[in-house]
Amino acid sequence: SPPQGPKMLNMTEKGKAGKIQLPREIFWSLSSRTVRVVVTVLNIQRLGMFKEVNQMGQVLDDTVVGITVGETSISGLRNPVQLAFAHEQLPNGVTPQCVFWDPSKGMAGGWSSSGCVTQPGDKGTVCSCNHLTFFTLLLNPALDRSTAEALMAVATAGCGVAMAFSIFTITLCIFLRCRFRTEETLRTNLGLHVNLLGSLLLLNLAFLLNSGLSGGTQPRTCKVLGGFTHYCLLCCFTWTLLEGCHLYLLFVKVLGTYIHHYLAKLCLVGWGFPVLVVGVAGAIGSYGEYSLQTVNHQVIAHLCWITSEHLLVHYITNCGYFGLIFLFNVAIFGVVTQKSCCLQGTGVVQGDRKAWKVALGAVGLFCLLGATWALAFLTHGTSSAPMLYLFTILNSLQGIFIFIWLVFLYYPKTKETTGSLSHIIRHDKTITVSQD
């Protein structure tokens, strides 16, 4: 009856019992009217419903529970609706989150936790929400505290080492540019490397500032730091793309590729394009505090980054942008490798070069084109701890890889200068001209 309200509703499926408890205040405004309380239990896998774009978590038992009282929309409850989802003990690396389906989220709707509180337990999770709609329990991949702290320590130490090697390598490149004053191709190559290493240096600096300052910064300062970190990351990606484009011009379009103020135009793109992206993202309020949490919802670290409400910005500007860049650079790497093998087969490159030197050159070139960043696509959120360790370690060593590659490429022995990139390009030009 309306004055008392329903005491409790039960549902049982496959031997698991869940409970739903509605507060009496829902029925106070109904006076003496009789209303229908409808509880709908849906298997979304069979129905093909409630599919969110780029969803990381898994719906518990593929089950969504919808609750309606009468024909009115109910929200803003002082006493929340309680849903108890029964489940066995969740595996390590998974955290439950109470969510509801929000049709206004994204292009086709998505899961939202606004107005819901999650209370995890050993044999179930209780969701307390201040409105009625379709609810479920989302199982999100999450780090345990020890793994997360170890990754943060590795990343911090790696960033410090990477900054030191980036500064040293930039100094080496500047020295080599002064040494090879008459070699325009080499000077352009080294200029590109200096800019890429400069973007890596700024990105590592931004991460160290982020991990050290974000916990006690003001909201406005955190937005600025988040935008700066995003800008440095986009600069790093863009210069990786420009390295690939430059290799394409050198090895594929060998003839007739002279561009007036070539390096200056590349700098305009490499440092200017990310400004536009960050400006648009900042205009819609994408930057702020982002919390890194454990399975038990303990905050490990506060980062100034793209907020959880604007993850679409992250997927488009970071994941999507780098995905296209990496596919392009993989194709360029294949072309460069094929060209080098052909030149070595024709005797242009000296045959006494050892196999490990050739392999080292290929690995360095692959790192230069962003291979270490591609490991981020294999982490599957935060559930793949070994892949996260691999990504963190190798990405922090990217500056070291580039340094070794540059030393190998530009500091051969006096009589082994034919192994340099510029010599291969010059011989490639000669062969192309003779064939024409």
UniProtKB/TrEMBL annotation:
GO biological process: adenylate cyclase-activating G protein-coupled receptor signaling pathway; cell surface receptor signaling pathway
Keyword Membrane: yes
Any Pfam family matching the protein: 7tm_2
Any coiled-coil regions, as ranges: none
Protein name, entry field: AGRG3 protein
Residue ranges constituting the GAIN-B domain according to the UniProt record: 1-145
A GO term for molecular function: G protein-coupled receptor activity
Main location group: membrane
Record lineage: Eukaryota, Metazoa, Chordata, Craniata, Vertebrata
Domain G-protein coupled receptors family 2 profile: 155-410
InterPro entries: GAIN_B (IPR057244), GAIN_dom_sf (IPR046338), GPCR_2-like_7TM (IPR017981), GPCR_2_secretin-like (IPR000832), GPR1/GPR3/GPR5 (IPR003910), GPS (IPR000203)
Compartment list: Cell membrane
Membrane topology (UniProt): Multi-pass membrane protein
One Gene Ontology cellular component annotation held by this UniProt entry: plasma membrane
Protein keywords: Cell membrane, Disulfide bond, G-protein coupled receptor, Glycoprotein, Membrane, Receptor, Signal, Transducer, Transmembrane, Transmembrane helix
TM annotation in the entry: 150-178, 190-208, 228-251, 263-284, 315-337, 358-376, 388-411
